[in-house]
Structures are given as structure tokens and as C-alpha cells.
Amino acid sequence: MGRRKTVEVPDEALECVMSYIRDPRDRSAASLVCRQWRRVDSRTRRHVTVRFCYAATPEQLTRRFPLLESLTIKGKPRASMYGLIPQDWGGYAGRWIRHLSSGSYLSWLKSLHLRRMVVGDADAEILTAAGGCSGHSVLESIVLEKCSGFSTDALYYIAARCRNLKVLSVTESLVDERSGEWIHQLALSNTTLETLDLYMTDLEMVGVRDLEMIAANCPRLSTLVVANTDLLQLGGVLASATKLKKWGGGQCFGSQEPLAAYERFHLNFSGGLTSIVGLNFMTSMELSAVLPVAARLKGLDLQYTLLDSQSLCRLISLCVNLEELEVRNVIGDEGLVVIGTTCKRLRKLRVERGADGQGLDDEKGWISLNGLSVVAEGCPLIEYMATYVSDVCNSALETISRCCRNLTDFRLCLLDKEENPTELPLDRGVRALLVGCPRLRRFAMYLRPGGITDAGLAYIGQFGLSLNWLLLGFAGETDKGLRDLCSGCPRLEKLEMRGCWFSEAALAREVPKLKSLRYLWVQAYDATPCGHHLSAMSRPFWNMEFCPGRLLSAGMGNKDFVVDGDTSLDPQVIAYGSLAGRRSDYPCSTVFPVV
After folding, report:
1. Considering only 118-132, 360-374, 493-507, which range has the smallest mean pLDDT?
2. Where are the domains of the chain?
3. CA dist., res. 46 & res. 181, Å (int)
4. Are 500 and 472 in contact (CB under 8 A)?
5. What does the CA dihedral 207, 213, 214, 216 come to, rounded to 10 degrees?
6. Which of 10, 43, 197, 490 has a CA that sits 20 to 30 A from residue 425's CA?
7. What distance lies between CA 151 and its chain's CA centroid?
8. At 218, phi and psi to the nearest 5?
9. Is the pLDDT of residue 222 over 70?
10. Please, what's the largest Cα pairwise distance for the chain?
11. Is the pLDDT of residue 35 over 50?
């Protein structure tokens, strides 16, 4: 029998087909077919997300994808947002920016998104200095999300040199505010801006007149989120932004102004407004500013308001078209009942912890199984649910699994307000969620000792067939639980565990069984002082770093770790897949590579 003849598809036809493949996983699979398909994928890939900045080098990225138009790079581990890793751990953007600026890559790159990275003013200057034919940067979108290390000087470079900028976002970044010249420069030089997002940045030198000029000069402005600006001073800005769809950041400074001023404020909103975020320190006195537009809202962020449960219920009861809601647990079960009976189109619900977590002077909220059950039964379209609860039981999780078939992301954290929760462990509820929600991809359970036993971990391994991210807090009893977990979860890419006291030897022995794993973070486990068992986890293209934690004594003679209820002082290990080899910018005093 002769060899089967193959007909090679012309590159032009293959490029046309590739343009319809948007999912990066599908593109990666297609690139493995043959060299031609890999070459075409390399030439036609327009967007890449580097999930961890040390997973590859900038040179490797641009060699593989030389014509990128959009690039997202994620830096520090997610745990850095909670102060759980050393402050100087790494995540520096300088090397990436210098390489991108050294060649012709910035002639193609239009969008750059950096998340949890350290970005210096010099980095921003280098990034924006590489210009196109007009001498100005061709970048149209710059997003610095949860970043640090830069000042308003960096924003000035961006405003002055990126004349075609459409998106500028520094949401939740730590910005050293030196002046307000950057916003004035942006107002003078830009007419294409569509998004300006300063959410949770504490930038106070943002002039209202400059904002009014931006709103008037940028006819496509659809998202405007500012920081510490008096709400009532923003009326002219909102009146000029006729295309505004998302707005937020106006700060309420008490009830000094007459109530009528807030009652008239809604007249400034554009007819297309569908999302409001960041109404900082709003009380029930100023609530009338947004009540008239509540019925058309699809997105609402009330995390930093000072509204009590009654006021929150009053507002949410009018939001019949709401799809995304973020609120503190001050809303209580009463508020969750209102959500379940009113917000039938809800797709995302996030309930953060209240006064004890943010220092806000508000009433204590109580979220329990009753509220969760009503939301599950009343919001069947929900896809994302993250809640801090005071009490929970298996039946509530079973209700969620039965009613929320579209759930893709579920996160639950049990607070310590209730000494004796209704029911622990939650093994049966965990099993129900994994079986009843077939689309579940991201799953987090942060409970307390005894919240999930070895049997619950076995359920996760057996039924978590679609999970690609898993966070566990204070789960498991013995190393057997870890063994059963790692024997399953075939698609798990990221595993984070805290307060799960598995032995170091078990970690090194069982974790390599997770064949799809790309990232591991474990803190507060049964560690050896030097992490010497971790070397058994070694494999090609796999970097491991050990942080021993703070010791009781300055000398190394005392090997006991500080244990006072604060697990942030306990040892931790970070491991990740990498084509770049061992990094060289780790802090020598707190992070030790494992060979």
C-alpha cells in the first residue's frame, strides 16, 4: 500500500482560517499540527497573555510572535494583593519594556496591559519614547492594573507622547502623586480617549476643569472613573460626556450640601449610562443622586459606600436589569433576598467583607445559608459568585449546584464571626457543586480547620475534571487528602493552598502528578526549615522558590517559625513552569531558589 499523498494548504488560505480562531488554547493546539501551521500562527497571532512574567523571556515571546498588537503580562502572584509574599519579591516590568522598545515591536503594539507589576517612571519614559512615523507613540491602550513603583511623572509621559490613546487605566495601582500636570496635558493633547479609569488610586490633584475638557474634546469617551473628586463638582463633566456608559469615583463628603442638589444630580447622566462604580463614602443622604437611573443599570459597585442594609435594599430593589453587583457583607441576608427576588439577570455577584476588612465604620453584616439559597434560586443565570459568609451549610451549596448550572467561578470564604457554624465539614456541598455545575473552572473554598476533610479533597480530585484554578484554605486532614486531590483534576493549571498542613515530603511527591499544573503557591504547611524535601519536585522547565518566613530569633540557631495565629509569617513555596530558567532578580534575604 503506497504512501498517502498530502496536499499542503497555501499560507494565504491558512492565514484566513487562523483569523477565525480566537481562543488561545485552540491557537496553541493548531500550532502543534506541523511547522507550517506553527509558522502561520506565529505570523498571525495578534494578542498574547503572559500569565506569569517569569514563564518566558521577552526575547522568546517576540521571536515566537513578532507582530503582536496586544500584550498582557501578569507579574506578582495573586497572594501579593493580601500582603502574603515579601514586598520586594519581584515582578519588575523594566526588562520587558526595554526589550519591546529596542526593536520594531512597538511599531505594531497598540495595547499593553500590565497586572501586579513594578513599573518605574523610567520604564514609562522608555515605553512612550519609541514613536511611529509621526514621532509619537502608536500605543492606543495602556493599562497598569494593581501596579506600583511609578509616579504621576509616568502618567505625564503617557499623556504627552501617546496622542492616539484610547484607554488609560491605572485601577488600584499605587501611584506617587507629585502633581496634576499629567491630567492637564492629557486634556490638551488627546481627542481619542474612550476610557479613563483611576479607580482606587487616591489621586487628588485631578482638576475638574481638565476633566470637563476631556469630556468635551473626546466624543467617544464611554468610561470615566475618577478618584477623590467631590461628586457634586462632576455635574459639568457628566453633562459633556454624552456617550458615557460607565462612570464612577465621585466622592461624597457628607450631607453639607442641600438634598435637592443630589436629587437633581441624575439629570447630568447620559442616556446610555449602564454602570456605576466607586461611589466612595456615599450615605443614604446622597442616595437620591443615583436612584432615578437604577432601573437601567447593568453594573453596580457599592463596595466603598457607607450605605446601611436598608439603603442598599432600597437601591437594589430598583435594579431590575442588573447583571454585575459588588457590595460588602453589610448587605446581610435581607439584602441577598432582595437580590434574589429583583435581579433576575444577575451574572456576577461579589460580596466582600465589611468593616473589619476595610476599616469602614459600618454595621456588621451577616451572610448565611438563607441568603445564598435565595440568590441561587432567584438568579439562575449567575456565572460568578464570590462571597464572605458568616455561616454556611451543605444544603446551601447543594441549592447553588441545583439552580446555577451556568456557574464558572465560585469562591467562598467563611468568616470567624460564628464560633459554631451550622454545619462543617462541607464535603457533601463541595461534591454537589462540582457535579452540578459542569462549567465550573475556578473554585475557591477558604474555610477553617475541619471545613473540608480528606473526603472533600478526594471529591475535588474525582469530580473537578474541568477545574483550571483551585484555592484552598485550611482544608484536609492528612497527606492522604493531598494524594487523592492530585490523583485527579486533569486540567488544573493553578493551585493555591494556605493553612493546609500537609507535609513537605507529600507536597513534593504528589504535586507532580498534576500534569497540567503551571503554577503552585503553598503557605503555612508542615515545612522543613530549609525546604530540603522540595528538591524531589524538580522537573524540566520548573522553577521553585522557598520563602522560609520570619524566625523567632535573628540567628538561624532557632528553627521554630513564628506561630501566633498569623499564617502570613509561615513558610511558603512558589513553583511555576518556565522556559526562561531561574530568574536573577529575587531578593536574596527572603527568597531562596530550590535546585
Report:
1. 360-374
2. 9-45, 47-251
3. 34
4. yes
5. 150
6. 490
7. 22
8. -115, 90
9. yes
10. 91
11. yes
Q: What is the pLDDT of residues 403-458, one digit of tens each?
A: 999 999 999 999 887 777 888 999 999 999 999 999 999 999 999 999 999 999 99
> What is the distance between the alpha carbons of residues 477 and 500, in angstroms, rounded to a whole number?
8
Count the Cβ atoms, other than its own, within 10 Å of residue 515.
9
3-class state of residue 40 by DSSP: helix
The predicted model scores a pTM of: 0.91
Question: What is the SS3 assignment for 169?
Answer: strand
Neighbours of 358 (CB within 10 A): 12
Q: Nearest-CA neighbor of 472 among 480, 481, 463?
A: 481
Which of 447, 439, 446, 445 lies closest to 468 in space, CA to CA?
A: 439
**Does residue 4 have a pLDDT over 70?**
no
Q: How confident is the model at residue 17 (pLDDT cuts 50, 70, 90)?
A: confident
- Which 3 state secondary structure label does DSSP give 363? coil
Give me the phi and psi of 58, to 5 degrees please.
Answer: -60, -35
Overall size of the chain counted in residues: 595
User: What is 47-251's CATH number, 3.40.50.620, 3.40.50.2300, 3.80.10.10, 3.40.50.300?
Assistant: 3.80.10.10
pLDDT beyond 50 at 560:
no
Query: What are the tens digits of pLDDT across the range 511-537?
Result: 999 999 999 999 999 988 888 899 999
Q: Which residues fall within 8 angstroms of residue 4, CB to CB, at 6 or more apart?
A: none
Answer whether 411's CB lies under 8 Å from 437's CB: no
Question: How many separate helices (H) and strands (E) can be counted in the chain?
Answer: 20, 23
Q: Is 566 exposed, middle or buried (0-12, 13-18, 19+ CB in 10 A)?
A: exposed
Strands (E), 311-436: 324-328, 348-352, 384-389, 409-414
Report whether 413 contacts 389 (CB < 8 A): yes
Residues 470-495 have pLDDT tens digits of: 999 999 999 999 999 999 999 999 99
For cell 492522604, what's the residue? 480
User: Please, where are the H alpha helices in 168-292?
Assistant: 181-189, 208-217, 235-240, 259-263
- Equal CATH topology for 9-45 and 47-251: no
According to DSSP, the β-strands at 572-577 and 542-547 are: antiparallel
* Integer-rounded Cα radius of gyration of the chain: 26
